[in-house]
Amino acid sequence: MDTLFAALADPTRRGVVERLTRGEAPIKELAAPHDMALPSFMKHIDRLEDAGLVTTRKVGRQRIVALTPDAFAPAETWLERQKRAWEERLDRLEDLAVRLEADSTDDA
Hints:
Layout: H1 2-8, H2 11-20, E1 25-26, H3 27-31, H4 38-50, E2 54-59, E3 62-67, H5 73-107
Antiparallel strand pairs: 1-3, 2-3
Helix pairs in contact: 1-4
């Protein structure tokens, strides 16, 4: 999961992932909106591929990039556990606030 989050830490790579949610694309199309040389852009694709977020395949002279199905599942599971833990904490805090408020009105 560290590799996944590290890959997504870069805005260029997040942009590529966002674009790929609409479907696979050739490298040149993915590189077009980014102001960098193609070899530099390829390093971003390699990093996404190393993290298991995308796959590439060769079609003729083009390299096509696609999102990997379920690549985000481990991160999604971890984030959901964190969300539930914080929601439980906040619910307990709210219960305490309600009890304290009730106690303070009873004392008045």
